[in-house]
Amino acid sequence: MTDAVDGLLVKRAGPLALLQDAGRCGVRRLGVTQGGPVDLHGWAWANHLVGNAWGTPALEVTFGGLELVAERDLAVAVAGADLGATLDGEPLPGWRSLAIKAGQRLAFDTPVNGLRAYLAVAGGFSAPPVLGSVSCVVREGLGGHDGQGQRLVEGDRLRVTPCRAGSGRERAGEAPPQEAIDYRQPAVLSLLPGAQVGEFSGESLYRAFNMPWRVDDRADRMGVRLAGPPLHCRVTSMISEGIGLGAVQVPPDGQPIALLNDRQTIGGYPRLGALTPLACSRLAQCLPGQEVRLKAVPSERALDEYRRFRRTFA
């Protein structure tokens, strides 16, 4: 924090713009959730494109409506959703790094492809860590640009850590074309079957993995409800257990809820299983009404996929 300088001034805040690093680890035993980017894939690429190390704070912009003015020359990258980003009114290319000058205006309009964009600056955003992380969890009042868990509002300043000569990582410049996902396409979400999967009826399991689901409008950073054929489980009551990222709980109405980064730490509904981290990322970019499908995968395949992903940013 001592080396941080003013980097971006908020001229228009939009509905939800939050600082997120890799998340708050080791605190769920205290009833504190992890936070962090709901689209790990887009967040990681934004940081990678400007040469930042894994875990560097970046700005998660949901729905758009954000306008920023650069207070100094910066190297930036935008990855994840296409929210109609512009620089001084001209289209801003995504999934690549570029330089912006002091006084230039960076704006995000409305969703074109996906829901959440990630803005990274070379050197990273700087904010006071809370419980070891700057990740913003509004519900718990933790982290963010001010340490109080507040979303950005007009007049806020985002501070950055200047890059020193010889101290930065090599910038990737531009992401491979296959990394720029078309979020408008139906998503296939990898799911690891959970402890209670055998308690669901055979018909329910067939429905779960062979029929489409629609993303409900009841969706946020805590979780996403999926609308479709009701699933029936023989387990009607459980002692609450710890809830990991991607857990797919099935409440009494039979409509699954995929829990994301700002989820509660324990829950007592039976679980169909858990989405993989990259499946959570894909789901986080789905707009209400979009179609998704669930695909059961073995843990070895899921782990191999995640290791390949992380090696890109090692």
Automatic annotation (TrEMBL):
The keyword Transmembrane does not apply. Keywords: ATP-binding, Hydrolase, Nucleotide-binding. Transmembrane segments: none annotated. The keyword Lipid metabolism does not apply. Signal peptide: none annotated. Residues 29-313 form the Carboxyltransferase domain. PANTHER family: 5-OXOPROLINASE SUBUNIT C, CARBOXYLTRANSFERASE DOMAIN-CONTAINING PROTEIN. This is Biotin-dependent carboxyltransferase family protein.
